[in-house]
Amino acid sequence: MALPSEQLLLERFMKLSIATAVLTIVLKVLAAMLTGSVGFLSDALESGVNLVAAVVGFIALRIAAKPADANHQFGHGKAEYVSALVEGAMIFVAAALIIYTSALRLLNPQPLEQPGIGLALSTLASVLNLAVGLALLKAGKKYRSATLQADGHHLLTDVWTSVGVLVGIALVALTDWLWLDPMVAFAVGINILWTGYKLLKESLSSLLSESLPKEEHAELDARLAELEDEFDVLFTSRRTIASGRQRLVYLTMDVPGEWTVLAAHDIADRIEDNIDELFSGAEVFIHVEPAGTVHRRILRMP
Question: Which residue, among 244, 208, 193, 210, has the nearest Cα to 89 in the 3D structure?
Fold first, then answer.
């Protein structure tokens, strides 16, 4: 569960993304209207998808921040993965629209008007997307937000889209090869299809109760090794789940058979506190077994 201050910060980032999407749509639509370029039009279409995705992401962040309730006893953290799925699907929609419009223009090429103004407007939009996209990725990684990371990747995809369009429009202006405009737009559409596929794949994997990242698992294993030596216990099973910004850790702990329930409970509490210091806000579940008992060890099964 995110702290209130952290939640407000994440929501501000998404509001920034929404405002950026609105501004870039205006700039790119103006560029498309002034030049008649299908490349600029395809770029504007993708920014429209950015706006829808950012709004969905903002709503998902709000839902993910809700506390656990009777129907969602482990919280609502996975709402962020649903947002990333929606964003991936929206990227596919944008790609389909871009490929369709570029195919029509390829069959019916048209000369461009005022390409210089269009290039300037699109460049400004690209700079805005680049700055906000990098900021979202940095914050998303820091706060483990799938929504911010997905939106950041989407904005950077938009930047590459715009770069391709800018190069294509510049070449058309220099060479009068009108077919370059729709061909660049078509290539852009294929590229963002690949981006949408990768985003959907990552989001689906996370929805299927994916474990913590490898680097966090390594930190957990190192800490558990220290705790085994300190408390004379043995962790025979360890499982983790990443649920949005929430971490769930399940441990089976073997203790000396002569320990009382109170002593084992006291050690378990201290271990939970120790893991909470490592991963703030993590929920830790510890099953206690007497040492030497034969029981199922899930991670060691073939």
Answer: 193
Please report, for the chain, how many H helices and E strands are present, in that order. 8, 3
Residue 4: the pLDDT is 62
Model confidence at 244, pLDDT cuts 50, 70, 90, reads low
| End-to-end Cα separation, the chain, in angstroms | 34
Helix axes 115-143, 4-35, angle to 10 degrees: 160
User: Which DSSP state fits 210?
Assistant: P
Which of helix, strand or coil describes residue 29?
Answer: helix
- Cα separation, 253 vs 250, whole angstroms: 10
281 in Cβ contact with 249 (< 8 Å):
no
Distance CA 12, CA 10 (A): 5
Nearest to 243 by CA among 297, 295, 281, 192: 281
Q: In this structure, what are the phi and psi dihedrals at residue 10, rounded to the nearest 5 degrees?
A: -65, -40
Residue 267 neighbours by CB under 8 Å, 6+ apart: 231, 233, 253, 255
The DSSP 8-state label assigned to residue 78 in this structure reads T
Q: Which has more pLDDT, 267 or 79? A: 267
Tokens read off for 76: 């609502």
CA distance 283 to 74: 9
Q: Which residue has the tokens 């769930």?
A: 248
Q: Are 82 and 56 in contact (CB under 8 A)?
A: no
pLDDT per position as a tens digit, 38-84: 777 777 877 887 788 788 878 877 877 777 666 765 666 667 677 77
Helical (H) or strand (E) element with 68:
none
Q: Is this model's pTM higher than 0.70 or not?
A: no
Q: List the beta bridge partners of residue 252.
A: 237, 287
Q: Phi and psi (nearest 5°) for 235?
A: -95, 105
What's residue 267's pLDDT? 92
